[in-house]
Request: fold
Amino acid sequence: MYPCSEVEAMNLMNRVPANCSLSIQQKPTTLDSVPIPKIDGPRTSHLLNSGLVILQPSEKALDEVVNFLNTSPTIAASRFADQDVIAGVFHGRWRPLPWWANALKPGRAVHQNVWEDSEVRLIHFM
Reply:
């Protein structure tokens, strides 16, 4: 999940590298080394790009999703239904992927602190 991708590309005013989870990633970046966004972090740190997601939630997690869908006032304004719901339900509880697991071409220039061409595993085309 990559918070400074297409969601923020639509609103360049929010495109601040320091607000992106990639800005706090360090070399080497492993799957479990990326910190969970802080509850009170910038709004953009809680945006995610779900891309392809296969979920097998516990019954409790599924109940949380259904409850959110039935009660959240944000549903009607959601622009990216799956992403907005997942981000809302799991606010402060999801971990962004390392940059190399969802690499966007602009990341090469914006996140030079971590980018290494040889480490890219998945390329996200927009």
Summary: Helices lie at 6-9, 59-71, 81-89, 107-110. The longest helix spans residues 59-71. Residues 6-119 form one domain.
